[in-house]
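INFO  loader      accepted 1 record
INFO  loader      residues=110
INFO  predictor   begin
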Amino acid sequence: MHYNDPSALQNTPWSVSLLPTLNSSVMLCVRLVFLKRVHKYYRDKIQNPSALAAVTVVVVLLSFADLGFAAAVTGELFRFTNADLTDTHTLRASDILPPFASQLHAQSAS
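INFO  predictor   done
INFO  writer      dumping tokens
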């Protein structure tokens, strides 16, 4: 099909670009179901219910943040896939990460 055709590697299938969001949405569902079971189990057994509520809120917020970051990565992958690939630009961490995170990534690499 594309044997001995290195230019075929420059085009990412749309299904591969969608994987971060799909994986994150499945992880979100699993986390929320598990969190519901933990909350139901410990609701009557814990002495400080506000601590359980705080942990629940933190886990829910972090799970939705993970989904948001995965959606941003998927958007960047689609943007990179549809870009003009005539130049030899490769996808780097600085293309996906915000400017402050790419500076941190550059500092940690050196």
